[in-house]
Design a protein that fits this description.
single chain; 387 residues; alpha+beta; PH-domain like; Immunoglobulin-like; 2 domains; five-stranded mixed β-sheet; 21 strands; 30% strand; elongated; transmembrane helix; transmembrane; membrane
Amino acid sequence: MTLKMKSAVFDKSVRIWFELYFVLVVIGTLLINRLPLLLDNRNPLYLFFWFVAMVIGCLKAIRVKLAVDSEYRAVEIVETRRGINLYLRNYWRPIYVPFKWLKIKQSDENNDFILSYDKAIQFRFGKALLVSGNQVEFSEKYFVFEEMSDIFDVIANLQKDPNVVIDYDKLNPVEKNVTKDKWRTAKFFPWILLGTSLVSVILTAIISDEFFSPSPYTLQMETSLNSPNYHRIYDYSKGMTISTNFYKFKILHAYKVQEADTDDDYIVLNINAKTASEYATISDGNFMSFDNWSMKAEKDSNEIDDANNNEDLVIKTHGRKKGVINMLRSGWDGSEGNDNYTFNVALKKASGRTDIVYAGFQAILSKSKHEDTSFVLKINPNDLEKI
């Protein structure tokens, strides 16, 4: 004798769960994308969030599939008439609860039944394992009350006398609440929505990143950031993103090169920039290199190099001289209609770690609303690529 859940109600609850899951993973992806001022390299967070979300979704889908494969069973009286197989606590496999460990009572507030057990047995890999006790509530939402009442009355009688005569003809339930559309059943719908979720979050990340631009400068920003000491400091990693008030910089590559005539070491940064500010104008003079940056060093102009010294840098590659193309020169004005620009800047390399500064404003002066915030990019020699 078996007690089964209402299949259509169960399927509907599963659909609601996975529809909410879909909405949350898309919203989570959007929120991660909108954190540029707090987290500039969002890829690890994306991967962690998607991995956790997919693990949770897949585990839920597998549990649901196994519940459907068991034909929505919840409680099953075993052939020996001395216990039950309980499915609700663990969809992976049922647990066996002998009658002597089992207690059943009806809720005083409604028609629900509460099944509690002191301990149970789970058969796994050919071994019987003892599991701790728990309780399960059988709600009229998921079960037909008459069916619950019948099977729990039978269990109560069997607890008293395993040999009691049971008229099974009167206890055979007929499923009336069946889902018509096969694709909407709990067995298939979770996997359809999981696949849709994976595609959707990836497209959400790509599209929102493509159309995202930093927030325009506001008076609130001017109040909170109008300080000559405002520099954000980063450790370089390939493909990282750095946001300032006016720009979203993506550091595509950092190359180590040698000047063709002097063999001096230089760093060439390959950068993509997006802007959404009417004040955004950038030139090679905004970039400097230091062997050990400090605010004082920048104010005192103690940099190793300034990028406007290297607009026509000629490097040596594979024994041949070659000019660096697409160098940022006199400037790029984002208000001219092109809000996305990829360029190179070249700066002398320090003997050890090189600190490259994007100076959005002059360190010796107070920053006005027409000037950007600054950042310092710390580059270790081992992180540099070779051409």
